[in-house]
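Example (one chain per record):
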Amino acid sequence: MQIFQTIWTAMTTPNDIALSIVGFLSCFIEASVSMLLFTTVFNMLSSRKTKIIYILSVSIIGYLFRMFIPDPFGSFVNILFILCAIKFIFKSTWLKSLLSEFIMIAVSTVLELFMFKFYQTVLNIPYDNVMTIPIYRFIFTLSIYFCIYLLYRLIKYFKFNIKLENMTKKNRVLFIVNAFLGILAIATQIYLMAFYSDKMPIYITIVF
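Predicted structure:
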């Protein structure tokens, strides 16, 4: 009973070790559901071995980047690494790789903004508690990944795929530029959200 009490206390109070464990486990879930989403949207066929290599490499190396490289540099390095991982592990084109990452970041950011405001407004859980208390952080991240998984199931059910093979060179360049600008815009929104999400009305949070 003492062990369970210790675990419960660690999960319900600010605890750096518990947060690190939650963050490490979350990396594997995030890599898995994100991979399911972009491989389905762009119809990337791959073996089970390829998928496992991607999940392990992105999760472990990405976690190390987050741990030892301070933000925003750590996030930027992680974005570049994931881009290269999609390109070389799935043997995809640079365009597909960039758009795959754009979709992951865009969907995750929209859901994160909405969930933050939902926790603050409906559940009355402050932003600081979500970020510092492990059990809140774990439930929060699971909520986002569950929504991404549901989106993946819907896309798979309706057989929605984006085919880029027949695009002209000009359109491909435009796609790459727009996707890159979109990632920069989303990164800016994440930065602003971290400081001002508790002060913004819910309708502004959802729009932006």
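Caption: The chain is about 80% helix and 0% strand.
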